[in-house]
Write a structure and sequence with these properties.
Helices cover 46% and strands 5% of the residues. It has 5 helices and 2 strands; from the N terminus they run H-H-E-E-H-H-H. The N and C termini lie far apart (91 Å).
């Protein structure tokens, strides 16, 4: 009797699924990133021109940051590789389009927004 454990593939798949989900929740929401980009555009700055404070807890002392993806990188080479990646290009395209949905939009779509009682006619 030899061979591999039959549950080995299941365990491997379960662990890879957890790591994929973990990275998903560490990002800022799309609407928060979009608001930052709009604020920078109103000031006449681009995403690259922002001075970053030195922070020892972040990768690369917090100096290599992608605003669109809300990620810090260890050095300039890794950041440049990220800028050429498919994930970054999709994110830039998403952020350059129309404004993403917000919680207010979701509430209004679910019927939980502000009530519309019609026009006020006359108060007595």
């Amino acid at each position: 009797m030899g061979g591999k454990c039959p549950h080995r593939k299941v365990k491997k798949r379960r662990l890879s699924h957890k790591t994929a989900r973990r990275g998903k929740f560490l990002l800022k929401a799309d609407d928060a990133v979009y608001d930052e980009l709009v604020k920078l555009a109103d000031e006449g700055k681009d995403a690259q021109g922002k001075e970053l404070p030195v922070d020892e807890d972040l990768p690369g002392m917090g100096q290599f940051y992608c605003l669109h993806c809300d990620r810090y990188f260890a050095n300039e080479n890794v950041k440049d590789d990220h800028y050429r990646s498919k994930r970054h290009k999709k994110r830039v395209k998403l952020m350059s389009g129309s404004a993403p949905h917000t919680q207010l939009d979701a509430d209004l779509a679910a019927g939980m927004g502000m009530p519309d009682n019609g026009l006020k006619l006359m108060s007595m």
